[in-house]
Design goal:
The chain is an alpha/beta fold. Helix content is 41%, strand content 23%. It is built from five helices and seven strands, in the order E-E-E-E-E-H-E-H-H-E-H-H. Strands 1, 2, 3, 4, 5, 6 and 7 form a seven-stranded mixed beta sheet that branches. Helix 1 (60-85) runs parallel beside helix 3 (116-130). The radius of gyration is 23 Å and the shape is globular.
Length: 191
């Protein structure tokens, strides 16, 4: 019996000769405590704030990546079931993508999970996957192509801009000894 090969390209997944419906979800985690996912089929996304990983923690970044995958699946279960209910056959493939190669390999079973907390997260992910009767595929993708990672990067930039703006305003509008608002320096006012 010949094994059917799974061929993946960005536009669609072909399983044998039949075309399958696909739900692609990107997930990404940040050691600063944020995780994000982006569902390509529904164009929905979510950023969550979690407890940040400890600094210099050996598995902190990988834990956040695993948690991002967990929440991506958990938050999209309803959407997956709704699309699956509209399918005549069970040709639905759930494609979970992350830029963490280690996390993907651990979920595929090709790499060992060495951390006890990550082992618990993997077990929770597998329990979620048991609730999905359709094929689930984990794929690695480049950081630049991960929409969830781009969402996290955009959020980080906005926070930095907000902090810079606050520091600038605080510096420019500090009160003097006499309780008056300091004036704008002449070099800035004439620019």
């Amino acid at each position: 019996m010949q094994k059917k090969e799974l061929i993946y390209d960005d536009a669609q997944i072909k399983y044998g000769l039949r075309l399958a419906s696909i739900i692609t979800i990107d997930a990404d985690g940040s050691p600063s405590g944020y995780i994000a996912w982006y569902n390509h089929s529904s164009n929905l996304s979510k950023i969550r704030a979690l407890k940040p990983a400890l600094k210099n923690d050996r598995y902190g970044v990988q834990r956040m990546e695993m948690l991002a995958i967990y929440f991506a699946i958990a938050d999209n279960l309803r959407h997956i079931r709704r699309i699956a209910a509209g399918q005549r056959r069970k040709n639905l493939i759930v494609n979970i993508r992350s830029d963490s190669k280690t996390s993907i390999e651990q979920l595929q079973g090709t790499s060992e999970v060495r951390d006890s907390l990550m082992r618990r997260i993997c077990t929770a992910i597998r329990k979620l996957l048991d609730r999905i009767t359709h094929r689930t595929v984990f794929n690695h993708l480049e950081r630049a192509k991960n929409i969830a990672g781009l969402l996290l990067e955009q959020r980080r930039r906005k926070e930095e801009e907000r902090k810079m703006s606050y520091r600038y305003e605080k510096k420019m509008y500090t009160t003097s000894q006499f309780g008056r608002i300091a004036s704008v320096p002449s070099a800035i006012a004439t620019a």
